[in-house]
Amino acid sequence: MRPEAAGTGPFFCSDAARARGDPIAGTAPYGGVWILVEHGGGWPANGFDGLDLQPDVKARVYRAAQAVRARILLVRRHGRRTASTSAQRWAVLRHDGSGVHRQQWGTWSTDEDLAEVVEALAAPGEVGLPPVVLVCAHGQHDPCCAVRGRPVARALSERWPDLVWECAHVGGDRYAANVVVAPDGVYYGGLDGRSSVAVVEEHLAGRIHAEYLRGYTDLFPPQQAAVAAVLALAGPAGRQDYAVTETSRDGDRWRIRVAGRPPRASRFDIVVRSYRTPPTRLTCRGVARSSAVVHEVVSISTA
Question: Which of 71, 101, 121 delimits the end of a domain?
Answer without folding.
Answer: 121
